[in-house]
Amino acid sequence: MKPARIVLAALVVVVMAVAVVGLGMGDAPKPEGLAPQGAQLVASKSRIAKGGDKVSEGKKEFDSEGCASCHAIAADGYKGVLGPRLDTDTDPADEILTSITKPREDIVKGYQGNLMPTTYGKTMSKDGLDAVVAYIKAASGKEKKGG
User: Fold this and answer.
1) Per-residue DSSP letters for 44-86?
2) pTM for the complete prediction?
3) Which of 5, 10, 11, 52 has its CA 20 to 30 A from that of 21?
């Protein structure tokens, strides 16, 4: 494991411990929107399964970076609540990428502004970042209309 990933994994563990203990954070917000269910869940699983190498690599990156510790994606059984749920994300790919690489620029209402690591833009490759975005888009299958 690369030293940067070890440090990041340790940071995720500390953040989770602080959240569990509730030190200065209050209650974690409920993930916005309900988890995809029924046909939506089947469609999400299908998009991920049929997403090809890029989506598959994105899931691997998502797992290895510890994203599921904070973010929910029902199709893969991820139930994180510290960050926004990602299988209902409607942002375009470029906004998702910015949320990963510059997480302090646009904080989703109700979430702590300082939990998401700011290092992903430096520690992850462009291909790795693009793959995570592709995985999130496959999981959600949604995009904002007119924006």
Assistant:
1) HHHHHHTSHHHHHHHHHHHHHTTGGGT-EEGGGTEE--SS--S
2) 0.76
3) 5
